[in-house]
Specification:
Helices cover about 35% and strands about 15% of the residues. It is α/β, with parallel strands linked by helices. Helix 1 packs across helix 8, helix 6 packs parallel to helix 8 and helix 7 crosses helix 8. The longest helix has 22 residues. The N terminus is likely disordered.
């Protein structure tokens, strides 16, 4: 069915007038998910209006700190030591993004990391809109078992060679995005475009430099986290999340099912924002994050019973960008 749609879209003389004129498919690998984490590699595939590849670009970036989860991205301190700093690649990166819609898998995360790096460099990324391929796959009703990039790739027969390598992840996403775009055009689907607002100022907290050990209570580069046990949330639970409102420090958040970002890193980011990460769901849970609200897992079933609000991973990422401080 999809092949018929994509073939029709490819050969059609008309194309949705509202669709963008070009795309920048992006993937960044980072030292983690927190506000002060850094980009350590970036890749961009530039596509034309119909999703055809024009060129691609890749760079390592020296984060000037511990590289984070080496077991995920494979980039050690030694590999990054001689890499350029972000300000050194900012102009070239910007040229690849200029005038295009940023496309990424869980795009709010990639955009936030990019926006922060440009703010640190006292510049702005020339991006005005982003498109999340998770959201697009939902708009198209693709029969995916979960929302991981590997599942999207498998659906379109794209072979992934090096997962969590920025260049290969960007290639895989570009190859999966093209048939998605063609199917959307053939079906008259409105693309899920979101505004990108650049940061205009930045202040960094100190972080351990590359090759250095963190201070008391910190971590070594080889371990990144000394323990998976998190400290107790210091804020009281303000109650349930309400749709259209902000998250508030102290809210209890539970996760269920597969996520496109590693679960540990996503939970760490929630903790950094001042949320309480709950391992189970109860009447006190403020919010359940799941990409599959119809899965029938115990947490999803309990959320229905208790009336607990549910959001998907992409929406949760947007909410994390603006968490309300706890009272007092």
């Amino acid at each position: 069915m999809l092949e018929d749609h994509t073939t029709a879209a490819s050969s059609a003389t008309t194309w949705p007038a509202a669709y963008p004129q070009g795309y920048a498919v992006v993937d960044v690998e980072t030292t983690g998910l927190a506000r002060d984490d850094r980009i350590i590699s970036a890749a961009v595939y530039r596509l034309d209006a119909r999703g055809e590849v024009e060129d691609h670009w890749y760079t390592l970036v020296n984060p000037e700190r511990d590289p984070g989860p080496v077991w995920i991205h494979g980039l050690t301190s030694e590999a990054l030591r001689g890499a350029p700093l972000f300000p050194d690649v900012a102009e070239e990166f910007a040229a690849r993004l200029d005038g295009r819609v940023l496309v990424a898998h869980n795009a709010v995360f990639d955009w936030q990391m990019i926006a922060r790096e440009y703010a640190r460099a006292k510049r702005e990324a020339p991006v005005r809109q982003r498109l999340c391929t998770i959201a697009l796959s939902k708009e198209l009703g693709l029969p995916l078992p979960n929302h991981k990039l590997a599942s999207l790739a498998a659906h379109f027969g794209v072979v992934q060679q090096r997962a969590h390598h920025a260049l290969d992840d960007a290639r895989v996403l570009a190859e999966a995005f093209r048939p998605s775009l063609l199917a959307a055009a053939a079906g008259g689907v409105r693309l899920p475009l979101h505004e990108c607002r650049p940061l205009t100022e930045w202040s960094d907290r100190p972080a351990p430099r590359i090759g250095q050990q963190a201070g008391h209570g910190g971590h070594r580069q080889t371990g990144w986290r000394p323990s998976r046990k998190r400290p107790a949330c210091p804020y009281p639970n303000p109650g349930r999340y309400e749709e259209g409102e902000r998250l508030k420090q102290g809210m209890r958040v539970a996760f269920s099912g597969d996520t496109s970002v590693e679960r540990d890193l996503l939970e760490d980011r929630a903790t950094e924002a001042g949320l309480h990460v709950a391992t189970s769901l109860s009447r006190l849970t403020s919010l359940l994050v799941t990409n599959d609200p119809d899965s029938g897992t115990s947490k999803v079933v309990k959320a229905r019973q208790y009336g607990t609000p549910v959001v998907d991973e992409a929406a949760f990422g947007q909410l994390l960008a603006d968490v309300e401080p706890a009272d007092g």
